[in-house]
Sequence to fold (209 residues):
Amino acid sequence: MLSPPLRLITMNRVLFMLGATGLLGLFGQAVHAGGSNKGKEILTLRIHCEGSAEDGEKFTVPVTLLDGRKAHMSVMPILTEHEVKAVYPFKAPDGTGGAYLKLDGHGANLLTQCSLEKRGSVLAVLFNGRQAADLMVDAPVRDGIFVIPSGLTMTEEARLVNAFPLMGQENAPDQKKKKAPFSPKNIMLPPKASEFRQQMEAPATSAAP
Fold:
């Protein structure tokens, strides 16, 4: 049986699930991992909302979600790294990484609007072109916090820590100087179907005589 996409959840609900003490310890490990990475690397984050095939190929792209389900995702993302103000990484129960993304005012409004209008839809999270997680929109999100519950690698968490201030420490001198480097890769371009996970079927072959 295919697993459903992760639910889109608020920061308070994740804190309750993980427990503040264990979360802070894991958070410290992620900060250490990020600090050991001297050179800043390009970071692109694209969060696409599920659309409909009826919207046309100019507006949606057919993809395969991480649970194997076929879907059409909107070509233009609703959120990118440009709307992220601060981050807070944590360790997910399945051993992968997760992160809170604190959005700016524009991003927070987009997230609230999407969570109100697209309930029951899926959001696909692409990190540097890799489909890291699929989330189900199941409730309004009004706190401006986008939660990636799991699916990130340690390297991806480190890149987040290197690029953005840590939540709660935005005004610290060592956090203020952080800024994601600009690159042509950061330009918001439509995604390709190949950027999403594809379920490739092996070609049928006849048995040898």
Residues 20-35 form the longest helix (16 residues). The first strand starts at residue 6 and ends at 7. Residues 9-38, 198-209 have pLDDT under 50 and may be disordered. The domain at 6-170 is CATH 3.30.1360.200 (Gyrase A; domain 2).
